[in-house]
Amino acid sequence: AQAILSQAARYPTGRSSWHPHSFSPSLMAAVDIKVELNPKDDVALRDDKSEKSTRRGWGLTCRRRAARDVEECEPAGYSSLVLQGRSIAASKDQALYQSMAWWSRAESFGGARVFVLAPRGPDGNLEYNVHMQKLLAYVVSQMHEHVVEQAKPYAVVWLQLGDHRISLLSSLIFSRSLHSSFSKNLEAAHVVHPSWGLRFMRLAIWPFAGEELWERFHSHERLQFLEPYMSVATLALPKDIFQYDEFLDKDAERMLDEAAGSSAPPEA
């Protein structure tokens, strides 16, 4: 508004001495202008949708443009990703992928529906070679209706089981192929049993990342640390996930005992 008034002050105070076309294009683009002129003034007005002009009384009012809604964006390749995932869901491998990715009965305490991702082989085989590109395509196809079509909030629990199974480059390429609704409607991502790679990544970005990232990106060493955010019992986790959690506890106890034994003074 101050910029407009300063430009208007450069002209004489006569009623028809200036009009909205006198303003610079950059200024006109920054604000919406409403100009009211006396009916007796002979001022030519353009028929331009970017300007709102009437011929009633003398006056000048300015208002900022209303903030635009975030435009939903569907990158090239997203549709093919969904179709690939749906073809997997209709194939003989459906049961395998259902055991690695599913909508749980849980809702976060913030009201977001929770999706679980647990890449591993049949019977909890951690050595199984998971095709992550196919798995992520399946994940997108399962989440599409809730996240994109219904535009509802969601949270993700990613059970890494000590292995993230995807390179940084591949994860960046995948993220760029996602519909913008996945970012817009994400409440939080919770990584459980994080890999060492993820631990180092979080440590590396800690000095630079803002609070918004840490509010939406959590890492938990054990399942019990999910409890402040959601009920673990409603995640419908298979038995092998809990067994892995117990294995980590026992392994941690063993290492503590070994460390205590090595630090004990030798007997006389």
Can you characterise this structure?
The chain has 268 residues and is α/β, with parallel strands linked by helices. The chain has helices at residues 2-8, 25-30, 78-89, 94-98, 132-149, 168-176, 180-184, 196-205, 211-216, 239-263, and strands spanning 31-36, 52-54, 59-64, 101-107, 113-117, 154-159, 186-192, 217-220. The protein has a 5-stranded mixed beta sheet with strand order 4-5-6-7-8. α5 (132-149) links the parallel β5 and β6 (154-159). The radius of gyration is 29 Å and the shape is globular. It starts with a helix and ends in a 5-residue tail after the last helix.
Quickly give the structural class: alpha/beta
Mean pLDDT metric: 79
% residues in beta strands: 15-25%
Rounded to an integer in angstroms, the radius of gyration calculated over CA atoms is 29 Å
Helices and strands in order, then pairings?
Elements: H1 2-8, H2 25-30, E1 31-36, E2 52-54, E3 59-64, H3 78-89, H4 94-98, E4 101-107, E5 113-117, H5 132-149, E6 154-159, H6 168-176, H7 180-184, E7 186-192, H8 196-205, H9 211-216, E8 217-220, H10 239-263
Parallel strand pairs: 1-2, 5-6, 6-7, 7-8
Antiparallel strand pairs: 1-3, 4-5
Helix pairs in contact: 3-5
Short description:
With 268 residues, this protein is an alpha/beta fold. The chain has helices at residues 2-8, 25-30, 78-89, 94-98, 132-149, 168-176, 180-184, 196-205, 211-216, 239-263; strands at residues 31-36, 52-54, 59-64, 101-107, 113-117, 154-159, 186-192, 217-220.
